[in-house]
């Protein structure tokens, strides 16, 4: 068995923001360190709440997971700043999620000049690092605004500076103690350096681990992004991550895929096509996998029925075998002649 992946970066493109502001929205699950993790967003008063949650069903009693993680709300406005929450926390049976009750105000989220809405959806970048048991959890967190340095294009405005914002709080979903970053807590403010982990492939800055996959996609489908509209590299990378996530889902055995997995993949594919990706080929593959899932599900039901019928037949055969042996015994007894003593007695 291979070693479990302890770190992962993933991107969640939310459903339509109008739906998110009236319901709790959940991302697809992402597997890290043998656990399924997902993001959830919901309105609370005048703010949007954002949480990282863990699916505990597959974990043994008394489990705990120490995790460093960050959640970034991406803006497409070059003169504005992303919003980052980063912390190190312990997840357990008592606390299955951590997040922020006041991640961003709804007014700010809707403000067009802030650039948080992309086709009326928000983009969240998540980074998780599940720590080994020996690592001690450091009770510190930082929630602030940042700007990722971008490659300046001809129509780009200048990039804003990183700022701190003391109005954001990190808290447990179970009303655990909360801590805010004050203006004097310089030790909690992490300097954000220009990222050096990405490589440009056909106009997309992708992580080094994705270079081979993205290069092959463009080799097979060179016109895939000719009509792709976003220019912000964070947003471009976010959508590319979503494309890779769909392909990763479709590479799984239909037996392991749920109906929700395929439904989420179909919704994400529609989002990608909506922003300009040419993905007719992927739609065909998704339909193929969906059909295979239907057949697999139907075959599973038929196999179960046949196994039940076979079990009944085996029981009938066993009962018939028992009756046969009893009948043979009676026949043998009937054929046996009486002895002299049997007659005379």
Automatic annotation (TrEMBL):
Q: Which Pfam families match?
A: MATH_2 (PF22486)
SMART domains from the entry?
Answer: MATH
Asked if Coiled coil is a keyword of the record, the answer is yes
- Gene3D superfamilies this protein is in? Apoptosis, Tumor Necrosis Factor Receptor Associated Protein 2, Chain A
Coiled-coil regions listed: 296-330
Respond yes or no to whether keyword Disulfide bond is given for this record.
no
List, for all copies, the residue spans of the domain called MATH. Answer: 7-128
Give the record's keywords alphabetically.
Answer: Coiled coil
- Output the PANTHER family linked to this UniProt entry: TRAF-LIKE SUPERFAMILY PROTEIN, UBIQUITIN-SPECIFIC PROTEASE FAMILY C19-RELATED PROTEIN
- Name the UniProt record assigns to this protein: MATH domain-containing protein
Native organism: Brassica carinata (Ethiopian mustard)
């Amino acid at each position: 068995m291979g070693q479990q992946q302890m770190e992962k970066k993933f991107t969640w493109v939310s459903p339509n923001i109008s739906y998110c502001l009236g319901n709790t929205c959940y991302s697809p699950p992402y597997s890290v360190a043998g656990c399924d993790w997902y993001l959830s967003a919901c309105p609370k008063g005048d703010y949007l709440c954002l949480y990282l949650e863990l699916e505990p069903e597959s974990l043994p009693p008394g489990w705990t997971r120490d995790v460093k993680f960050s959640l970034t709300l991406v803006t497409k406005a070059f003169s504005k700043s992303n919003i980052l929450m980063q912390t190190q926390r312990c997840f357990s049976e008592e606390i299955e999620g951590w997040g922020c009750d006041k991640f961003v105000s709804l007014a700010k989220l809707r403000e067009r000049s802030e650039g948080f809405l992309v086709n009326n959806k928000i983009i969240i970048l998540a980074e998780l690092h599940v720590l080994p048991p020996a690592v001690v959890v450091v009770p510190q967190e930082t929630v602030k605004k940042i700007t990722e340095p971008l490659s300046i294009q001809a129509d780009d405005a200048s990039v804003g500076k990183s700022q701190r914002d003391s109005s954001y709080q990190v808290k447990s979903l179970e009303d655990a103690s909360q801590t805010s970053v004050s203006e004097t807590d310089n030790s909690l403010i992490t300097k954000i350096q220009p990222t050096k982990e990405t490589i440009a492939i056909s106009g997309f800055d992708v992580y080094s681990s994705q270079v081979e996959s993205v290069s092959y996609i463009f080799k097979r489908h060179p016109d895939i992004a000719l009509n792709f509209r976003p220019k912000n590299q964070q947003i471009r990378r976010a959508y590319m991550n979503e494309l890779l996530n769909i392909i990763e889902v479709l590479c799984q055995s239909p037996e392991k895929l749920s109906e929700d997995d395929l439904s989420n993949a179909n919704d994400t594919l529609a989002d990608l096509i909506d922003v300009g990706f040419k993905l007719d080929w992927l739609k065909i593959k998704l339909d193929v996998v969906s059909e295979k899932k239907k057949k697999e599900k139907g075959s599973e039901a038929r196999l179960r029925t046949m196994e039940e019928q076979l079990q009944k037949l085996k029981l009938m055969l066993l009962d018939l075998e028992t009756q046969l042996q009893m009948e043979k015994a009676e026949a043998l007894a009937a054929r046996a002649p009486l002895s002299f003593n049997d007659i005379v007695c």
